[in-house]
Amino acid sequence: MKSPQNLFSCAILAISLGLSQAAHADTQYVNDMLRVDMRAGPTNTHKIIDFIKSGTPVNVISQSPDGVWYQVEANGKQGWIQAQYLTHERVARDMLVDAQAEIEKIKKHNETLQDSLSDTRTELKSLKAAHKQLNSGSVQLQRELENIQRISKEAISTEAALRDLSERNQMLETELEKLTQENQLVKAQNMREGIQFGILAMLAGIIATLVIPRITARRRRDVW
After folding, report:
1. pLDDT digits 0-9 by tens, 31-40
2. Burial 209-218 (b: 16+ CB within 10 A, else e)
3. Which partner from 29, 43, 132, 171 sits 20 to 30 angstroms from 57, CA to CA?
4. Which of 50, 77, 79, 45 has the alpha carbon at shortest distance from 62?
5. Are 97 and 111 in contact (CB under 8 A)?
6. Which residues touch 94 (CB under 8 Å, ≥6 apart)?
């Protein structure tokens, strides 16, 4: 036979279940208490079925008519927890842990940024050195270009001089060819004149050979 206390508890439970308003799906957290009792019914006389640690999220199922108790689901169990131990905000301890984790994350990110900044500065320094070297190389290239332009101008002048010399050489060769032809003509003329002179001398000799004896013979006859 059940005791009057148990009967009273069952009656209270039945009334609370029948009269409680169905709450919307709601997640709340156990407040800063180290732990909270989860009971089988909405009274302190009901059996404790679990201990819920501070910061544990619970799913609110319903609320007792007097609003003092919440029927919740947590750790795979359903039971009743006093409303004063639940809050919609996460407990300060968990928020502090999250804040510390976020701070550590920010610190690591800051360290990464510092390393990246250091690498960027090193790279910038290298780029400045490379830029300085490029400027120096550019000045050297400019000087070499000016030297090439000067040599090119000199080469153009030399080419023009060579062209003039070539034209003069061609003119001299033409004049030499003319002189050679004239010399050959003179030689040919001299040869003709020599031949003519030889022929005349030969004729003179022949004439002398033929005429002189006759003249001599005539003179002899005249003397006789």
Report:
1. 555 688 899 9
2. eeeeeeeeee
3. 43
4. 79
5. no
6. 29, 55
pLDDT of 72 higher than 90: yes
Stated as kind and residue range, the H or E segment containing 49 is strand 48-53
Instruction: Give residue 82's identity as a one-letter amino acid code.
Output: Q
The helix or strand, by DSSP H or E, that contains position 15, with its residue range, turns out to be helix 4-19
- Residue range 158-208, pLDDT digits in tens: 888 888 888 888 888 888 888 888 888 888 888 888 888 888 888 877 877
pLDDT at 48: 94
Decide if 31 contacts 85 (C-beta within 8 A): yes
Element (H, E) at 111: helix 92-223
Q: Which domains does the chain have, with CATH numbers?
A: 4-90 (2.30.30.40)
Using the structure block, give the residue that is written with the tokens 């005429």.
211
Q: Report the C-alpha dihedral over residues 20, 26, 32, 36, rounded to 10 degrees.
A: 50
Question: Which tokens belong to 90?
Answer: 């996460």
